[in-house]
């Protein structure tokens, strides 16, 4: 009878493949977590994961995996990593990547490809074949690469990391054919990798001109956008604002960039005409890290009468909506350069009084619209959630309120206003929770919740400490309101929806349904629990009246 040689087994011997080069390089660059879904062409990647220290979070839908990697990056400040399979898997993630691209979130997307022999426009009939897969990603990623040889993988990953982290931040696409991922490699294990991030200071003559304008300004005002937060420029913004004695308004993406209760803070009421008028009245309007886009410009009703300085790392943003002194620069570096040259003004109380009167007038307008339910609901959420909590908001009426009224305090406010796609809140919250190891809040409507309901399974599998607040109004609430206001009736906005409490329970997720006035108590209970949980509130929230349509505020 034949006998085995001493020490041998029937187990197959794992050999390093192209996938190992991917995960080794990611680990050497500091990555900790990967999001995605396995697929046939990507099996080499997932085989390699079994030999690495990287944690893998298995989502249920590729678009939600992209949102989760996005949320992870926002909450941790790290690069989000996403593994995708070929064709349908890769394409399904594109809407999530559009949000990351629009909002400037650094991500590395590694997508598999069909074998090398099938690349190009030839229709060989291979599974998942596309004529040019990376062309599909060109609209939603900073750059796209195809790696044709295993030896090129480490450099491609390293270059992509540098690209993702160099301002303007964003997702970067790498695709690797199936056989390149599967074939045995003789490239030695990757132990050292370095992502070189290029700094983007402002040009000296532009700083000098900006200082000249600001030094002579009598009524300077500052708009702080998401670029301030992405750059970690909160301290520099505070220094410049206090030196100028300039009121500061934060865009939704810039929320948290400036202290909410500071005497110079106009908070985030960018959708109120009274705040728009303060911006219009400025003799110099300093816009940092914002395109003055649709929401921040109060739906393009903003018409500045003074000079405008616009600082942004993305050159396509500069002067995209208004003529300006365009300064391409990282917000932190540019604000530091300004702070070094701007003399500090004596406080005369004028700017503070403008802020006080404006916020009081905003409050008076809200109080006259019979919005006690809405304001009480948002206050209940804010009071229940810890000051330092990360919050993730879907495109829903509660989020539209939060864009204006939410005080981020010492936490992070993340919403999907960059691209505006549904389904962001819960999966991004899962990513943020797993990245930080701390409980986060995700907020969705019943319509957007159905985009990501499958990720209840992901939250359970990975025990993500995420509390999901679902505001159930039986349809696409904001579209219902828009259509009723415009046409006198709403069409195709009503939805058959599940019993969210029972549905969550079927996944083993604790859930409760409460009245709007009980939301705070429910969230406090949820915050003390382990793992994921769900709070459902059935209510119809209304938006405050739009002021960009008001011609005469008197």
Short description:
Mean pLDDT is 93; it is low at 1-9. The chain has 554 residues and is α/β, with parallel strands linked by helices. It has helices at 18-28, 43-49, 62-76, 88-92, 94-103, 133-136, 153-165, 178-182, 204-216, 226-231, 234-244, 273-281, 331-341, 350-367, 372-384, 397-405, 425-436, 446-449, 455-461, 477-487, 500-506, 519-527, and strands at residues 33-36, 55-58, 80-84, 107-113, 144-146, 171-177, 220-224, 248-250, 284-288, 307-312, 325-328, 390-393, 412-415, 440-445, 466-472, 511-514, 533-538.
Describe the 3D structure.
This protein is of the alpha/beta class. 38% of the residues lie in helices and 15% in strands. A six-stranded parallel beta sheet has the order 2-1-3-4-6-5. Strands 13-12-14-15-17-16 form a six-stranded parallel beta sheet, with helices on both faces. The chain has a five-stranded parallel beta sheet with strand order 8-7-9-10-11, with helices on both faces. α22 links the parallel β16 and β17. The N terminus is likely disordered.
